Amino acid sequence: MHTKKVTERIKAKALELLAQHPEGLRYSELHAKILATDSSFKPNTINGCIWNLNTAYPEKVYKPSKGLFRLLTNNPLETEALEISPVATLSVCKVKEEDFYAPFADWLKNEIEDVTHAIPLGGNKFKDKWERPMLLASASQCAATSFKARLRLFLQKSKPRLSN
Prior knowledge:
Elements: H1 6-20, E1 25-26, H2 27-37, H3 43-50, H4 53-56, E2 61-65, E3 68-71, H5 101-111, E4 117-120, E5 135-139, E6 152-156
Antiparallel strand pairs: 1-3, 2-3, 4-5, 5-6
Helix pairs in contact: 1-2, 1-3, 2-3
């Protein structure tokens, strides 16, 4: 049995992984690596532990850009250019439109941090035949930012076009 709380173990694992990757890790990469190390961690618990690592550990973690976590010990010089990691290629498979709703909401909220709340609504949530937006999102002032923003609502209706 583990002596630390689950949240403490997740945060410790996040700091350990950031130490192993001096270039930093994007939110989704960090989430996937933590889940891969211990399958007993629940994905939502991981989300709750890592989304604000830079505010939970301001003396250890910073964000050089939205969604990218890096240890302060790996802080690049101002003249040093930020390297962008290559994007992994995916194999082609059949997917449903609904498969995009929750990941898109998570991406908007945690990866690029454009909104503070995002709710997937697509599909037949309202039990009628009319088309509904796939996502409702809002952006407002966040405690982690120093700027004030007016409330913005986003309705996303576009559908992905997949080639056969």
